[in-house]
Design goal:
NADH Oxidase, alpha+beta, 222 residues
């Protein structure tokens, strides 16, 4: 036996007919095309089992050398959410006053965003996605591979899993985000990349009337 195959197991894979694949792809597209970023959240609680399974889904993402260089901090404690809101708004005030170029603020204007981040307390759950820039093995620093790409894929799968379960999300990046390491007591090898409020949309929530790029603008068959 080829040594590289030792420890391998048979692949579990269901092959579908062309018609079934077309149906499944179409249905999933229609589901995901209804996904919208939400900034108005109900305070209604969500089942933690749903959150746990969504994180499990995210953690099934492919990663460089299968090192899974991510960590998901799930926050429900109102006091911690308050700390996070205060830290985020402190950075966002600086962003809007002097860090953001005028062009960036003009592009953001359609969304009506500002430094007020009340949704960080309203949403019943916050998920902070951390990337693990390196790992420690018996106290020795070891390299992780394709960290940004791996964490990006996992984050996309997390958002899709939450939407599929019937929850709304927002991808928030209050850069710089080092305050999250301090509040959540995360180690130095981790850097926060996304702060995701999760919950149900508030009654009467409205979102911008956006149009997605057509297929021929984002895909070409060669």
């Amino acid at each position: 036996m080829n040594r590289i195959m030792e420890g391998f197991i048979p692949l579990k894979f269901d092959r579908h007919s062309d018609q079934e694949m077309i149906h499944r792809a179409k249905a999933y597209y229609e589901l995901m095309n209804r996904r919208r970023t939400v900034r108005e959240f109900s305070t209604d609680p969500v089942p933690m089992e749903v959150i746990a399974d969504a994180v499990r889904t995210a953690s099934s993402a492919p990663s460089g050398a299968h090192l899974q260089p991510w960590f998901f901090a799930v926050i429900t404690d109102p006091k911690v959410k308050r700390e996070i809101r205060v830290g985020a708004e402190k950075e966002e005030i600086i962003n809007y006053e002097r860090r953001f170029p005028e062009e960036w603020k003009e592009d953001l204007a359609v969304f009506g965003t500002d430094q007020e981040k009340g949704y960080l307390e309203d949403a019943p759950v916050l998920i902070v996605v951390f990337r693990q820039n390196y790992r420690l093995v018996d106290g020795e620093r070891k390299k992780n591979y394709y960290v940004q790409e791996s964490v990006g894929i996992a984050s996309g799968m997390l958002i899709a899993a939450l939407h599929n379960a019937g929850l709304a999300t927002l991808t928030h990046t209050p850069n710089p985000m080092g305050f999250l390491n301090s509040i959540l007591d995360r180690p130095k090898n981790e850097s926060p990349v996304l702060l995701i409020p999760v919950g149900f949309p508030k009654q009467g929530t409205r979102v911008p009337d956006l149009v997605r790029k057509p297929l021929d603008a984002v895909m070409k068959i060669y």
